Amino acid sequence: MTDRIVVACSAGVDPSAAVRQLGGDHEVLALVVDVGGRSREVDAVRHRARTAGAADAIVVDAKAEFAEQYVVAAVRANAGDGDRVLVPALRRPLVATHLVRTARQLGATAVAHATVAPDEVALTAAVGGLDPDLDVVAVPTSAVPSSGTEQDLWGRLVTTSAADDPWSGAAADDWTRSQDPTEAPDPDEVVVTFEHGVPVALDGQRFPVLRLLLELDALAGRHGVGRHDGIDDLLDGRKVRRLAESPAATTLVAAHRDLERLTLERDVLRCKRSVDQEWADLVHDGRWGSGLRRALDAFVEQTQEHVSGDVRLRLHGGTATVVGRRSGQSLYDYELAAAPSDEPVTLAAAWARPARIAARRDRAN
């Protein structure tokens, strides 16, 4: 009996070559985990997988799951900026979860992932943390898709041959979710409301996280927000260029980080900066299932108790700039922030001030 293999196929990417190659030794079952691809791309990849010889092509609508469990976690950890854009790393543990679940249900002995950004090490780590007995098969180099659209709710990976040259500039049509910042319309302002670190509303209108991401992505994208162009270090020692765009994610992280500055004590902020960096590194390296990530999540969860309020951002020219913030959990003292008093303040009183302000805030709640 031919062994079954479940092959995850990214929406927007042609998996035909990978399905044909892996079909020589296995009965291939294609799995499309929909984490924010366009509906026509989802339908197309399912059709191509079947045409290439897949015994079946299964589609799982995981958009809400991805938004509520993974995107929210990343926002609370202020991930996704700088050199850790997390496209497509953030969705990899969710894909691994559905790969393992489907393999168990259908009696498959192995899994693989047909993507233009293959990372066998990270996928193997993610799958191994869920089912240590399930094999991860690398897609042959000759069958790795050379082009396509790798995107999800968090962002979009720009896949173009020009990206291989770190000196070459991206072409205008390489970007699809963000307009040219130099041609952006007049500035827009948007107010994002958070409750315990979770984005829940735009301009006072409450949305599920999934809908909020879609609305904000379109708005921030019109102003060219969220374009990233950097050099990434892979676990195998290679340096690669990463072009990605993430309008909503970039905007949310900017707003959330600023709200934390208003509601968290200074020493908590200092420690959390290190935790945030470590959290992003773990996700980037495929260690979502590690005990350290779970421990960091527990720390982040504790810090978000008071991270509630509104942040006003101006979107224009490729940037999301915070221009106002307010919170019922604020540690901002208007009297202390005014001109300093003529009365001297002892070192002891100054040193105790942050703790006293926080204690008054906590007692009021």
Q: Number of helical segments?
A: 11
Largest sheet: 5 strands, parallel
Which spans of ≥5 residues are poorly predicted at pLDDT below 50? Answer: none
* Outline type: elongated
The strands making up the biggest β-sheet line up spatially as 3-2-1-4-5
Helix percent reads 25-40%
C-alpha Rg, in Å?
A: 23 Å
Distance between the termini: 64 Å
Which structural class should the secondary elements be placed in? alpha/beta
pLDDT averaged residue by residue = 91
The quaternary state of the protein chains shown equals single chain
Taken as a percent bin, the fraction of beta residues is 15-25%
Entry summary:
With 365 residues, the chain is an alpha/beta fold. Helix content is 39%, strand content 21%. It contains eleven helices and 14 strands.
Please describe what this structure looks like.
The strands form 3 sheets. The protein has a 5-stranded parallel β-sheet, sandwiched between helices. It has a 5-stranded antiparallel β-sheet with strand order 10-9-8-13-14. Helix 4 crosses helix 5, helix 6 packs across helix 7 and helix 8 packs antiparallel against helix 9. It starts with a strand and ends with a helix. Helix content is 39%, strand content 21%. Strand 8 and strand 9 form a beta hairpin. The protein has 365 residues and is of the alpha/beta class. The mean pLDDT is 91. It has 11 helices and 14 strands.
